[in-house]
Write a structure and sequence with these properties.
CATH architecture of the largest domain: 3-Layer(aba) Sandwich
Shape: globular
Strand content: 5-15%
Number of strands: 9
Structural class: alpha/beta
CATH superfamily of the largest domain: Thiamin diphosphate (ThDP)-binding fold, Pyr/PP domains
Helix content: 40-55%
Radius of gyration: 23 Å
Largest sheet: 7 strands, parallel
Distance between the termini: 44 Å
CATH class of the largest domain: Alpha Beta
Order of helices and strands: EHHEHHEHEHEEEEHEHHHH
CATH topology of the largest domain: Rossmann fold
Number of helices: 11
């Protein structure tokens, strides 16, 4: 069995309130060490540290204002905020190559921003205005920017894992050197697609890194209450011949070092990895969820380990001027204000655009006058399908 690897995680934080029949879990990573190989030391330069801080502060500022605009009725649909989880996106994005692929969930604002997508088209997408990232058709839950390697935010839990594997297989086939990085929540580990994708990735030695953002809750249910193992991702890794890796997902440098190691290994033909990042969302599952089911002591313990102020303090400790970080905070606020102005003043999309981005020729008119040969073939196919369905129904 592959051993457990814990990479550069901080000591465990204050314990959370114990539940009946459930051992008290610390706020930080509590990975056991079962002989996993120690990672090589990875040096982190100042530019990388500042890039990660910028990602965290911009993601936090963007989501805070987006949530306020949602409450005002400006942002349409719903929102799923990642406040508290930004270090995962920051660390991985800094370790990725520009042409690598990111796949994430509906809680994906931070990952999309981390890959370099500007705030303005993202917020325009969330309000459904002209100039939006996807024409205003996707909203908060489906942010995609192929040119930035942001290959989609997926609302169906677990659906994107096989798709990420497919992208990795494509890169492997083309020998492009690209790596797919797939982010998902702890609840996904109880979905069949999780196991199917991991198994095939291991069989094919595909260049894909699966990253579980374990924020402790699958919507409104504590993952520990419905899962037989302590670490829902890492404790299942051995079933697919993979290392069991648990790291502190609130420490951007621990995340970066781990990401560098396993992304570089995947790029060099070393196959997939499964990494469990212990983290916590500050709010509820979505706008409609106040999160009152979480013990107050648990919430307080994790808020004390908020990656934004803790990383800021660390950067100052290693010699980066507070004034420099202040300027980055101001720049983040400026970008948010600029995006908000655009969101409030941009016109509605042209109604005709609703028929674009559906068919290869930009419209569906070709469907109304098919060629005779196509009609005959379609009729034959439809008849065969009907007959097959009838046999299946009749046993």
């Amino acid at each position: 069995m592959a051993g457990r690897t814990q990479v550069a995680a901080r000591p465990s934080g204050p314990g959370t309130a114990a539940r009946a029949g459930t051992a008290t879990r610390a706020a930080g990573s509590r990975a056991r060490s079962n002989g996993g190989a120690a990672p090589a030391e990875i040096q982190i330069d100042e530019a990388t540290r500042l890039r990660m801080y910028r990602t965290i502060t911009e993601a936090r500022a963007f989501e805070k204002r987006a949530n306020e605009l949602f409450l005002e009725g400006v942002v349409r649909g719903t929102t799923h905020l990642a406040a508290g989880q930004e270090a995962v996106a920051a660390g991985f994005a800094a370790a990725m190559r520009k042409d690598d692929y990111t796949f994430c969930t509906y809680r994906g604002h931070h990952h999309t921003l981390a890959r370099g997508v500007p705030m303005t088209p993202m917020l325009l997408e969330m309000v459904g205005k002209k100039g939006a990232l996807m024409g205003g058709k996707g909203g908060s839950m489906h942010l995609t920017s192929v040119e930035h390697g942001a290959m989609g935010s997926y609302a169906i839990v677990g659906a994107h894992l096989p798709i990420a594997l497919g992208a990795a297989w494509s890169a492997q086939y083309r020998k492009s050197g690209q790596v797919a990085v797939c982010f998902f929540g702890d609840g996904t580990t109880n979905i069949g697609a999780f196991h199917e994708a991991l198994n095939m990735a291991a069989v094919w030695k595909a260049p894909v890194v699966f990253v579980c953002e374990n924020n402790q809750y699958m919507e409104y249910t504590a993952i520990r209450d419905v899962t037989a193992v302590e670490h829902p991702a890492a404790d299942r890794a051995a079933s697919y011949g993979l290392e069991s890796i648990v790291i502190d997902g609130n420490d951007p440098e621990a995340v970066y070092a781990t990401a560098r190691r396993y992304i570089d290994r995947a790029r060099d033909g070393g196959g997939p990895a499964l990494i469990e990042c212990m983290t916590y969302r500050h709010g509820g599952h979505s706008r409609a969820d106040p999160g009152t089911y979480r013990p107050k002591e648990e919430v307080a313990a994790w808020l004390a380990r908020d990656p934004l102020p803790t990383y800021r303090a660390k950067l100052i400790e290693v010699g980066i001027a507070a004034a420099q970080l202040d300027e980055m905070d101001k720049e983040a606020a400026r970008k948010v204000a600029e995006a908000e102005q655009a969101a409030r003043t941009a016109p509605e999309p042209d109604p005709a655009s609703i028929e674009t981005q559906l068919w290869s020729d930009g419209g569906s008119s070709w469907r109304s006058a098919p060629a005779a040969s196509t009609t005959a073939a379609s009729a034959t196919t439809a008849t065969a399908a009907t007959e097959t369905a009838g046999r299946a129904t009749n046993g």
